[in-house]
Amino acid sequence: MDYLKTVIPSQLFAERGSNLVVINPGSANIRIGLAQQDAPITIPNCIARRTTGANLTPKRNVQDQMLNSQVTTAQHMEREKAYDTIASLLKIPFLDEELGNNSVPRKMGRVDGAAPQGNKKETTYTWTDVLEENPKPSSVLESSSEKGETSTSPVELENSSISELHSSERKYREYIFGEEALRISPTEPYCLRRPIRRGHLNISQYYPMQQVLEDLHAIWDWILVEKLHIPQNERHMYSAMLVVPETFDNREVKEMLSIVLRDLRFSTAVVHQEGLAAVFGHGLSTACVVSMGAQVTSVICVEDGVALPNTQIILNYGGEDISRCLLWTQRHHQTWPPIRTDTLMKPVDLLMLNRLKESYCEIREGEVEAVSTVHSYEDGMPAGSHKTKLTALNVAPMGLFYPTLLVPDVYPSPPRSWFGDHEDMLEDTWHMEFPRRADMSDGFYPGVSGGMPMWDSFPIFQNKSKKEYKIGLADAISKSILSAGRIDLQRRLFCSMQLIGGVALTSGIVSAVEERVLHAIPSNEAIDTVEVLQSRTNPSYVSWKGGAILGVLDFGREAWIHREDWIKNGIHPGSGRKYKDSYYLQAQVMCYMNN
């Protein structure tokens, strides 16, 4: 403690953060970096694997495309009803309301004041070059170059158009990661996979668990090698802090921890909840943390550095749903150019819509319109530019409060039957799907040594499946805080709301949350004040930053799990190595912050 009183913060992070990797997987992106860095690297958590003639029937550009559903008539009617409710609140015309006098131009609410976002508005994406020099050994996945040399040459011969443009010394890349994977033309022989969807491991009948885990390992390994420059043979000198969203079940957390320790080969690791890390990243001890990610929104309350499990609420919508709603709104108002925009089959279109949403969408009264350039991405062709006037730009983000506007027809939650019975799932999966590896002892396989009970001793992970609600954000926040019990704590939490995640950057979101939450509190509750705290750190990565703080200040590291212990038998009750009580970490952090 004397050391904490005298050390300079930058010196502390430089000394203790140089060999600590903080990993924060979200519903669509992963934030990862060394704890000594000011900000993490944010990369789409996806991989595109090359397909061959043997598995091209039927051809799938996206692994999940068979899971998505069409919008039903009832959902469409509910969406239109929600639009009109929002329109009444924002004082704009209803969905099908015609202007009585077309000679009077509509009031333009241009978003020209957002100077930092100015460069984003005209971003044009290009198709990924899927070829590489041949031969070129892979630095990430072993033996991929040998597979590529033998299996890709027939495909190159069949694709004569590509062969004419590129020399015979080039071949298809076996794996493509991150944003590059999202910018692959649908005509190319690749299938895009997202191992995490709607806040869960993306396991389905089309995406077996073994493939999900292999893809997750491959993506994270590529980031460590190519972005952080940490090769596998040096990782025994590094520790990992895994900051997990509250949406994950304990089985899923266990699988990710196995990837970190067993496959990525970190020497030690520890797991912390995203909400708790966000509170520390903000320099607080008590708050209602509202995490608004790409595909999932969650709410959880933290009191004096301890997360309150009974206040947790999970909502199956996020920023990508707002982006798709933006497209639906423009098409309904006939402001979208006549181009083939498909957010499912062409992920690059979703990239474009996300950028438009970030640049132009805001929440405020009155008509919000803007002139922008929309791009079309036809198969293998350069991007086309279409200048258009976007309208009703304040409607889509209001879908957070009226979620029937955000029809979840794309990427529904993975079937929860996969996580319903943990013991049976372990028996089936570990004994039938996974091959045994030479470097794994028998003790690692849960059916053999009873490895699963280790999670019973971890109080921050509940055995029961996480309940998902179908309510608006304001109702969720009110319900969460009122579940905290004591009136004095409820009042503190209503005045300590913390918005995190990319959606928290939406202009006008703070005042909208305050107004809607105040209206959502039942009239019989003695609460008359609400407040969203001003963010001191970028909301999109405040949880990652909090994880870095927790890792750097945890001097004893008694809660950290060693790779050898995990591989042998996991962590069992009574072993003496459990997650440390959060009060201990809170005392360290508060001592540090008060100096």
TrEMBL record:
SUPFAM superfamilies named in the record: Actin-like ATPase domain
InterPro entries per the UniProt record, alphabetical: Actin, ATPase_NBD
Organism: Heracleum sosnowskyi
Family: Belongs to the actin family. ARP8 subfamily.
Listed CDD domains: ASKHA_NBD_Arp8-like
Region (Disordered): 130-162
Record's protein name: Actin-related protein 9
